[in-house]
């Protein structure tokens, strides 16, 4: 590339390289700093980090201008490569996220003693239910097994709402008395 074909930015960088021209460096900085910051922000760096990287890149441009070869690349390609390498370095320095420790849930499967206890309680409940009157068993089955509201049970059976409530209450009272040894102390 002939000197006449070089971009303005490449000419500024050559002035910095050859004469340590501060004015040319100021132009480079003013031209590239906002563009580098935008590139770094798009790459995922936060505002403060992006500004730090821009400062670091431009300092490298000043300090390493002697290494710039206009026959190999334009100033923009050389400067953007420095910025990209700094960004990669930042990502490499970040510690990898620690994996979350997942607590293994306690087994929801009941163990043998629990199974035995549940079977014994179920047998006691069946015995206690058999002691109830049939109309109490029917009212409790509708209310607790089928989860029907009292008004719906009244509608289905054709009995008054007060009668349904009384049968459920009396049945539960009898079950409480018969199953007192099952209640936790």
UniProtKB/TrEMBL annotation:
It comes from the Bacteria. Residues 124-175 form the RNA polymerase sigma factor 70 region 4 type domain. The keyword Repeat does not apply. One of its GO terms (biological process) is DNA-templated transcription initiation. This is RNA polymerase sigma factor. GO terms for molecular function: DNA binding; sigma factor activity. NCBIfam families: sigma70-ECF (TIGR02937). Belongs to the sigma-70 factor family. ECF subfamily. Keywords: DNA-binding, Sigma factor, Transcription, Transcription regulation. InterPro entries: RNA_pol_sigma-70-like, RNA_pol_sigma-70_dom, RNA_pol_sigma70_ECF_CS, RNA_pol_sigma70_r2, RNA_pol_sigma70_r4_t2, RNA_pol_sigma_r2, RNA_pol_sigma_r3/r4-like, WH-like_DNA-bd_sf. Residues 32-94 form the RNA polymerase sigma-70 region domain. The keyword NADP does not apply.
